[in-house]
Amino acid sequence: MAQPPGFVDPQFPGHVCKLHKAIYGLKQSPQQWYNKLTTQLQAEGFHFSKSDPALLILKTVSAQIYILIYVDDMLITGNDPQQIQDILSKLQTVFPLEEPTPLSLFLGIRTSTKLYGLFLDQQQYAQDILNSSGFLNCKPLLTPIALKSSSPAKPGLQHIDPPHYRQLAGSLQYLTITQPDIAFATNQICQHMHDPKQIHLQTLKRLLRYIQGIINFGLLIRRSNLTLQSYIDAYWASDQIDRKSISGSAHSSDTISSLGPLKSRLQ
């Protein structure tokens, strides 16, 4: 590590500090923390999920425990409350943990327990997007994007604030987690982040007005048997500029009442 101001030795200005452990702010620190935490969890019998390295699973004869990790935030669930408490107590001897609380908000996604299942929404996140764009009290629309593709943008119609356009477009991508119906429109908007024009801004504003009308929508996860259904389609040569096609896919099950995950991408 480079010597901090005030600690530089004039005789050895090119020397660096040798660290005995990772400290906050280094690019290696997140990986070191992840390795330390997962090593401890593996010692307790957890193993990594094959589909997600941030998900660790513990299976015994009578219990199944799941731990989801995001930096220093953890989500733990399972069918054995006593074993969950034992695991947290063991982790507390190694790491300073905050008092665990019932699941309500995790990474901007609000969870509500209903009689018929678990409801996920991003209402507050969507409100923040609308507020930052000045659309908090806008009139809602019924569709996220115009049915007929717009004509190519004319030269010289540069958007006056490209950074703000990019910020909003990037924020919309995270909103598609619980609002898969905006995935296609968000895909169209993000294709022009490098050089947004006025016509692209109009498309973005239309989507924001649609979000205003569905701000309370989300995903419902129900307890049921897993019956997977997949839907795949393509929009052939739809882009009026380069005539690239768009592929789309949606997956649903008896557990998730809405279509998701939903993907929309250029071929």
Automatic annotation (TrEMBL):
Residues 246-267 are annotated as: Disordered. Residues 246-258 have a biased composition (Polar residues). Coiled coil: none annotated. InterPro entries: DNA/RNA_pol_sf (IPR043502), RVT_2 (IPR013103). Residues 1-145 form the Reverse transcriptase Ty1/copia-type domain. This is Reverse transcriptase Ty1/copia-type domain-containing protein. The lineage of its organism: Eukaryota, Viridiplantae, Streptophyta, Embryophyta, Tracheophyta.
